[in-house]
Amino acid sequence: MKVVIVGCTHAGTIAAAQILKTHPQTEVTIYERNDDISFLSCGIYLYLGGKVKNLEDMFYSSPEELTRQGANILTHHNVLSINTASKRLRAVDIKTGTVIDDSYDKLIMCTGSTAAVPPLSGIDESKVLLCKNYQQAQEIYETAQHNQRIAVIGAGYSGTEITESYAQTNHEVLLLTSGSQVMHHYIGPEISAKVTELLEAHQVEIHLNQRVSEFTSDENGDLLIKTMSGESFSADLAIVCTGFVPSTTLLRNQVQMDRHGALLTNKFMQTSDPDIYAAGDSCAVRFNPTGRPAYTPLATNAIRQAVLAATNIFGNTMPYMGTQATSALQLFDYSIATTGLTYKYALRNGFKAQQIIYEDTWRPAYMPSTDKIKIVLIYDQETRRILGCQLISKHEIAQSANTLSLAIQNDNTIDDLAYVDMLFQPNFDYPFNYLNLAAQKAIDQEREAGRDNPRFTALGNDVPRP
After folding, report:
1. Which string of DSSP letters, residue by residue, matches 71-132?
2. Model's pTM, two decimal places?
3. What residues contact 144, with CB distance under 8 A and at least 6 apart?
C-alpha cells in the first residue's frame, strides 16, 4: 500500500514513524514545504527567554531519521493540488521548480495550521512579526536583540508566554488583547486576575479590550499600533500571537469541514473521504465536555491523532477518545493548569453550570514549607458531572490537571472526585487530597442550595484535617 503524508511537523512525523514501525513494508512518501520537520513551536518562548540555549534543540526528529526508517521524505516540496476523485496530487520542488505528479492509496493530511493574521493595514510592516514556526522564531530572536520596547498582540497561551520571556530579559513589554481578561479562552477571571498581577509585577503594561486596527509609523519611523478604541501605542517591535487557523485549502469542497475550515473526522480520524485521514491542527476534534467537534490546536492532540490515523488506515480498529484541551504553563514560578470548560463557556454551551473556588495550602502548615493553591472547579448542577477545572500555585500542580482530565473524559461527578482514593503523606498533601477537598466543597454548595445527592448524604463532609 502507498501512503502519502502531507505535512511533517508533530502529526506527520509521528504518523510516519508509527506506520514504518508497525507496517514496515508500506510505501510512505512525505511532502513537506520546509527543510525541517518536528519543530516544537510550544518551546519558542523558552528560547526567547534564554531557558533553552539552542533553537535547534526544539526538533525531536529529522528528515534523515525518517529516511533511515524507510520513508521517502521530500522536503522543500509544496503540494499544489489534490484530486480526491482520482487519488492524485501535484507538488513542486521549491528549489528547482520541478513539478511532480503522484498518487496514493491512503492519504494522511497533517498540514497543521498557520498563524491567524488579522486583515490589518500594515500587517506586513518589517517591525511586525508572526510567531509559529522555526524561521519566525529565529527572526523574532534576532530582531529583539536590537529593540527594547516590544508589543505582544494577543494574550492567549503563546502571547502570555512570550510576554513573560521578554519581561525577564530586560525589555519593556506591552500586552494588548481584544478580550476583557488575559487568557480568556482558557481560565476564568479568578485565576486571570492572578496572571495579570504577576505580569504587572514584572512591569508589563497590559491593555485589555484593545482590538488592534492598524500598524503604522510615526514621523520618526517608530512603530505605532492603533486600536479600534482610537488609542495608539508605540513600540520598536510587535509580535502577533492572535491564534491559529487550519491549513486545509488543498481539500476545500472535496471533504467535509467545519465553519473554520477544519477537517471533520469520525472517531477513527477518517474524513468524509474514506481514503483520507487527518491529524493535528488541520482537523477538529471531539471535545468531551460538550460532546461536539471543536478546533483545539494542541501538540498533545496532534501526536495522539497521528498514531490513530497511522493505525486506522489499515483498518478502523482504534477509536479516538476525544480531548479535554488539557494544558498548562509556567509563569514566573507559578504553575497554571486547565482542563475542560471554564464557567463562562460552560454556560455558553447550555449547561446549568456552577463553580466553586477552593483556596488553601497544598500540604499541612506544620511542614517546613508549603504554598497556597487555588482551584476553580466547574460542574453541571443537574448531572453533577465535572465540566472543567483551572488550578494555580507555586507548587507544581500541573499534573493534577491530568487527573481531572481523566475524570471529565470518564464522565465522573463531583461525588466521585470527592471520595476517590488518593494517597496521603504529609510531604505531598492532607489526608484528603486538595482535589478531594475541592469536590467536597462543591458537594457542600449543592447541599446548601437544596440539591443534595442521596448517595452521599450519610457520609458528611466536615472531616477535620490535622
Report:
1. -EEEETEEEEEEETTTTEEEEEETTT--EEEEE-SEEEE---EEE-----BTTT-TTEEE-S
2. 0.89
3. 48, 150, 166, 171, 237
**How many whole angstroms separate alpha carbon 157 and alpha carbon 69?**
35
Q: Could you list the beta-strand ranges (E) of 352-394.
A: 353-361, 372-380, 386-393
| Contact of 344 with 188, CB cutoff 8 Å | yes
Q: Phi, psi at residue 288, to the nearest 5°? A: -60, -35
Q: Phi-psi category of 311—alpha, beta or left, where left has phi over 0 and alpha has psi -120 to 50?
A: alpha
The greatest distance separating any two alpha carbons of the chain, rounded to the nearest whole angstrom, comes to 76
Cell of 26: 508500506
Q: Which of 10, 171, 184, 395 is catalytic?
A: 10
Q: Is 338 helix (H, G, I), strand (E, B) or coil?
A: strand
Per-residue pLDDT of the chain (466 residues; tens, 9 = 90+): 999 999 988 899 999 999 999 999 999 999 999 877 767 776 676 777 777 777 777 777 788 888 999 999 999 999 999 999 999 999 999 999 999 999 999 999 999 988 887 778 888 888 898 877 777 778 877 877 888 899 999 999 889 999 998 898 889 999 999 999 999 889 999 999 999 999 999 999 999 999 999 999 887 778 999 999 999 999 999 999 888 899 999 999 999 999 989 999 999 999 999 999 999 999 999 999 999 999 998 889 999 999 999 999 999 999 999 999 999 999 999 999 999 999 999 999 999 999 999 999 999 999 999 999 999 999 999 999 999 999 999 999 999 999 999 999 999 999 999 999 999 999 999 999 999 999 999 999 999 988 877 665 444 445 444 4
Examine the residue annotation and report whether 10 is marked as an active-site residue of this protein.
yes
Establish whether 42 is a catalytic residue: yes
Q: What CA–CA distance (Å, rounded) separates 75 from 20?
A: 18
Catalytic residue among 8, 23, 42, 146: 42
Label each residue of 183-252 as H, E or C: CCCCCCHHHHHHHHHHHHHCCEEEECCCCEEEEEECCCCCEEEEECCCCEEEECEEEECCCEEECCHHHC
